[in-house]
Design goal:
The chain has three helices and no strands. By secondary structure, the chain is an all-alpha fold.
Length: 136
């Protein structure tokens, strides 16, 4: 009977040890490499989110500037039409000023077109990076 009790006690001890081992294994902290990988992934995701946010802000800015530039060009067209109906003296005085304004508006158009082109480039790069899983 004593050997039977010893067997039961041994079995009970083995079961308790197995349960303890499983419990310890379940609560194990992630290794340094696992933590580093998690931080690396979260950093990449945060960087991509920031790029997307910045890209969205730039798109909104470019759209706003395009609207303002369109309004400026329309105003210049109206001023040119008024100057054409004016006297020769008024034309002589106003045309050089309007031409200078037209030149500045053309430079702004060029800069805005470059910003749009860069925006498209960034959008394509961002899309390719998201497919590769890397940041720019």
């Amino acid at each position: 009977m004593k050997s039977n009790t010893i067997m039961k006690d041994s079995l009970l001890i083995i079961i308790c040890c197995a349960i303890a081992a499983v419990a310890v294994d379940c609560n194990r902290e992630p290794t340094a490499s696992q933590q580093l990988e998690k931080v690396n992934t979260e950093t990449k995701e945060a960087a991509q989110d920031m790029k997307d946010y910045t890209f969205a802000q730039k798109a909104e800015f470019v759209a706003t500037m395009q609207g303002q530039l369109d309004a400026l060009n329309k105003d210049l067209d109206q001023l040119f039409a008024k100057v054409e109906k004016s006297s020769d003296a008024a034309k002589a005085e106003a045309k050089p000023k309007l031409q200078a304004l037209r030149g500045q508006a053309a430079k702004l158009n060029t800069q805005l077109d470059e910003a749009k082109g860069h925006q498209v480039h960034l959008g394509i790069a961002s899309m390719l990076d998201s497919k590769r899983g890397t940041a720019i």
